[in-house]
Amino acid sequence: MKLSVGDPMRCSCQPSMEEDMNGRATREVIICQAVHAIVLHDSRCTNNCVFCGTRDFGAIKENVRAELKRLRAAVETGEKIDVVEISGNDPGEYAELPTLVSNVRLLVGTCAIRLASHGKTLADEEFVHRLVDAGITEFIIPFYGHTSRVHDGVTRTPGSFVNSILGLTNVVKAGVRHTLTVLITKENQAYLTEVLLFVASLVSEVSVGVPYLGTPGFRDSVPDFDMLRGQLSSAVQAVRDEGRCIIRLRNLPRCLVNPAGAIFEESREPPVGAYEHWRRSQMLNSGFVEILNDRVIPRYRLFSKTRECKQCCYEGNCAGFFTTYIDHGLFKPNPVSSETNADGAPVRG
Ligand code: SF4
Ligand code: SF4
Question: 2 in a domain, yes or no?
């Protein structure tokens, strides 16, 4: 039974423990960034991920014009912007992306510009150089597997793993900041430790989570959470034992993974403007999105807890888990009776 819904309009910047490469907590940090979204929702994607789906180009030129107009208005009205994040189906498949990035750079001056892309088109080294010269300062690339079979099994696209690896190689060569993300699905769950060790061998920081449950078709690919409870803890521990990479657990509750020494992140507040293109009556009437504090928020980004959470020692500082998973009976909170330290000893109950 749903008792509360996390407030997505609260600051998403949660305090977290910074730890050293041996997994020892060193200091608590809070990083607050004002992120403005440029969303190329009319861009193409030639992947066909199990939780998403392939897309062709729509009215991309109008889409680009509208997003630049919105950014210009944000700058003119003094919106605080630390980072511009360019995303969409796949912005990297838009050949004129370097021009768009140049225009963003002209509008925002020196702030960071981040590109979220499957990375396949970054296999073209010249394209990477053009993007970096235009102003991209960070790349975010998802990896779903440690082999072609596992990664391409999630993207349902032969060759996607090889091209994303080539893309990452070019980004590394260009010396630009890059972050990898891993989303856990039924298709890669059995290989979770191998996948995390693989990505940890490539970068110093990885974000791990599960996909938003936005489309009903994804239900068949939802991981087995009962199995995941033990699996995720041992996979994270395996990476910590290697001591090469920091794992950030994104939007995952503490009842899903041994919290001792782990770093949790909650992103309850989407980048500004990320879902503005859904401010249409048919979307608002469909129940798929909600308007909160005059911002469009898709329901799949909301968090819920259940009555059982009242018994959990983390109840006071846990947002719960995605509402859509809980409402469809795909995730059941599992109250933790007492908090333990890194040695497994209780610290409070
Ligand atoms: S790469 Fe991104 S946009 Fe493309 S199918 Fe996968 S999740 Fe969707
Ligand atoms: S049982 Fe509820 S309060 Fe406890 S960690 Fe899980 S979701 Fe959070």
Answer: no
Please report the atom of ligand 1 found closest to the CA of residue 90.
Answer: 3
Does the pTM exceed 0.85? yes
Q: Distance between CA atoms of 202 and 186, rounded to whole angstroms?
A: 23
Residue 1 falls inside a structural domain: no
* Residue at 244: amino acid letter: R
Residues 322 and 251 sit within 8 Å (Cβ to Cβ): yes
Is 23 a pocket residue for ligand 2 (Cβ < 6 Å)? no
CB atoms within 10 A of CB 62: 10
* pLDDT at res. 236: 92
30 occurs within a structural domain: yes
Does residue 3 lie in a domain region?
no
φ and ψ at 345, to 5 degrees? Answer: -85, 140
**Number of domains comprising the chain:** 1
CATH number at residue 339: 3.20.20.70
> For residue 225, which phi and psi values (nearest 5 degrees)?
-70, -30
Residues 163, 123 contacting (CB under 8 angstroms): yes
Q: Which ligand is nearest to the CA of 266?
A: 2
Q: pLDDT tens across 246-258, in order? A: 899 999 999 999 8
